[in-house]
From TrEMBL:
It comes from Trichuris trichiura (Whipworm). The chain crosses the membrane at residues 247-269. This is Acetylcholine receptor-like protein cup-4. It is a multi-pass membrane protein. One of its GO terms (cellular component) is membrane. It is found in: Membrane. It comes from the Eukaryota. Gene3D superfamilies: Neurotransmitter-gated ion-channel ligand-binding domain, Neurotransmitter-gated ion-channel transmembrane domain. The keyword Iron does not apply. CDD domains: LGIC_ECD_cation (cd18989). Residues 31-188 form the Neurotransmitter-gated ion-channel ligand-binding domain.
Length: 357
């Protein structure tokens, strides 16, 4: 048993020595600041896809969203190659990401300065193969800005992008391509989970656009070769969300029906005092419901949501009911006064005596 342990230990030490020698050898040929191509006229092709693991927060007031996950990047480095036979058959190894070149992807629609880099820090590693193939999958926490429209609240559907791109390399130097057309959605490591933070994830998709710095426009097709120097590839990860509010309809329908019934009951009241009490109670109830609704409405809307229009209709209906009730009360009171006046004349009183004088 001890001989077997000693053999395994010596084998591991020898393997580690080969890795250290290999790392010292190939990293001398590569620098993190230079593109990994021997021909400077060639562009580095980087394949990209993303895995979304968690949506931490959807901030309706600030119109922003926080997303967690990791990116997968694949490219070829002309300087990171070796013959496995010279290093005891080692054909793949892990290196610190800060020791090799990697795409300088930044978050274009960052909501704060902390998320300008894509969290490609010192602790993350990259896998390098003897053929020069490099795989890099940094974890991220992106706090991005969105453009929400709450016109259909509470059944609104929002779409928010995560825009990534290089800040220093144009398409002539860096060509980012999509490895998968749809990012992998794996919320909290549960493939069936689609509801998080009060929102239901309907769809996620990815597309590559090209930003022309001269015209400040974006195009979805690859620009011509003469525009590569002025075009920057952008990775757009789109997240489509729907507000999850299964009980909102019940919470709105029941108060609406109750206030409508109270309004009708005011016409069926046996006395004026009962009708006034019902209308006063209805006014108080609608004020409480309106305040509760205003607290739930998103703070920033481009137009009045449908639920707001419904509440406005209910208030107008109450005003109309109050006006009708007041007119009826005044008509009844006027008829009562006329009846009393007619009875007085019928009893022989001089009804027109003041006029005759």
């Amino acid at each position: 048993m001890s001989k077997e342990v000693d053999y395994n230990t010596s084998a591991l030490l020898e393997y580690q020595e080969q890795l250290n020698r290999l790392e010292r050898s190939i990293l001398l040929r590569s620098t993190p600041n230079n593109r990994p191509v021997k021909d400077e006229k060639l562009s580095v092709i980087v394949l990209f896809y993303a895995v979304l693991e968690h949506i931490e927060n959807v901030n309706e007031e600030q119109q922003s969203m926080t997303v967690h996950g990791f990116h997968y990047l694949l490219w070829h480095d002309d300087y990171l190659y070796w013959n496995p036979a010279d290093y005891s058959g080692v054909s793949r190894m892990s290196v610190h990401s800060w020791r090799i070149w990697k795409p300088d992807l930044v978050l274009y629609n960052a909501a704060d300065q902390l998320d300008l880099p894509t969290r490609m820090n010192f602790q993350q590693h990259a896998w390098v193969e003897s053929t020069g193939r490099v795989e890099y999958f940094p974890m991220f926490r992106h706090h991005v800005t969105c453009n929400f429209d709450f016109s259909d609240y509470p059944y609104d559907i929002q779409e928010c992008p995560i825009v990534l791109g290089s800040w220093s390399h144009s398409l002539k130097e860096l060509d980012i391509r999509s490895l998968l057309t749809k990012p992998i959605l794996n919320l909290l490591w549960d493939q069936d989970k689609v509801i998080v933070s009060g929102w239901e994830v309907l769809d996620v998709h990815l597309n590559i656009t090209y930003w022309n710095v001269l015209t400040n426009t974006q195009m979805s097709t690859v620009p011509s070769a003469d525009l590569h120097y002025f075009s920057y590839p952008l990775v757009n990860i789109w997240i489509r969300l729907k507000r999850y509010s299964p009980l909102f309809f019940i919470g709105v329908l029941i108060p609406t029906v109750v206030t409508s019934l109270i309004t009708l009951c005011s016409f069926w009241a046996e006395s004026t005092h009962q009708a006034v009490f019902l209308l006063s109670f209805n006014l108080l109830l609608q004020a409480v419901l309106a305040e509760d609704l205003l607290l739930q409405l998103p703070p920033t809307t481009s137009s009045v949501p449908s639920i707001g229009k419904l509440q406005t209709f209910i208030v107008r209906k109450f005003k109309l009911t109050t006006c009708i009730f007041c007119s009826q009360v005044l008509r009844i009171q006027s008829d009562s006064n006329r009846s009393s006046y007619s009875n007085s004349c019928a009893n022989g009183r001089k009804c027109f005596l003041p006029a005759q004088r």
